[in-house]
Amino acid sequence: METPIFIFSLPRSGSTLLQRVLMSNPQICSVSEPWILLPQIYILRKEGTLSDYSSLTAHKGNMDFINNLPNKEEDYFDSLRQFMLDLYSKQCQNNEQYFLDKTPRYYLIIDEIVKLFPKAKFIFLFRNPIHVFASIINTWGKGRFRKQYANYNDIVDGTKMLSQGYSKYMGISISIKYEDFILNPLEELDKVSNYLNIDFNKESLKLFNSQNTKGSLGDFLGPSSYSEISSNGLGKWKTTFNSKIRKKFAISLIKKIRSEDLELQGYNQKEIICEINALNSKQNSKFFMDLFDYIVGYIIRKFNLNLFFVKEFSWIKKRPLS
């Protein structure tokens, strides 16, 4: 393996589809969503993690250790780079040229990743944030607002961080709009081909469905359910925001994102709001359910109550966190 490829995107932005299309080339290896760099980078951050071994104390100890290295943080990054390259290379069991790391929450550590791998390839994948949120509601929320607390920051903060990252590293990266990729896959794939200096063809757009990402994360319902890339689903988001309360929430959400950040990704805030306003809002039969879901989601997000009520976090009730 010569160098890694990173896809920076929000969750539910089509990154699994793009990952599988790129994996159709024998020079690219990938594995589901590694997430492996997040804990390594968050060692350097005072905030962002909680643990029963005391993340705050661990941060102090880590920083004491790093600051006593001859070149401090530079030494840590040098060793971390070699460590990660070794792991990526071991995934490339057929001596592929690239390892593709596709982890949506990497938008949190774009600067550190570029510092770690300045010669890597960076693909920014953008999708209309309202379409992203509709996909979150329809998949993880099963059509309800109940999951909005978990992904609110993805939409608002994630969009901002992706734009900031792309603005800063535009000269060494490429960007792809999900909508453009769906409508003109060969044209967008040609852009990737030129950037990576490897060949893709029409067969790449047929082989994506057979790629094995060998992991439990990522979108397995989408790419696995169709044999070719189709634009049929691009308007599906409209059926999600089909009531007054849902439209109001969607508009309030898009207004929390700076118009400049949307513009950089190829979207216009006013046009998105107009599209939402134009939707049919007569489907109000679930008004009280939507209102209940919204209020509960807001309270959970405001007070981080998921730490107390989600089954996977039940262990914290028995242990103090810091």
TrEMBL record:
<dbReference type="GO" id="GO:0016740">
    <property type="term" value="F:transferase activity"/>
</dbReference>
<keyword id="KW-0808">Transferase</keyword>
<dbReference type="InterPro" id="IPR052736">
    <property type="entry name" value="Stf3_sulfotransferase"/>
</dbReference>
<protein>
    <submittedName>
        <fullName>Sulfotransferase</fullName>
        <ecNumber>2.8.2.-</ecNumber>
    </submittedName>
</protein>
<dbReference type="InterPro" id="IPR027417">
    <property type="entry name" value="P-loop_NTPase"/>
</dbReference>
<dbReference type="Pfam" id="PF13469">
    <property type="entry name" value="Sulfotransfer_3"/>
</dbReference>
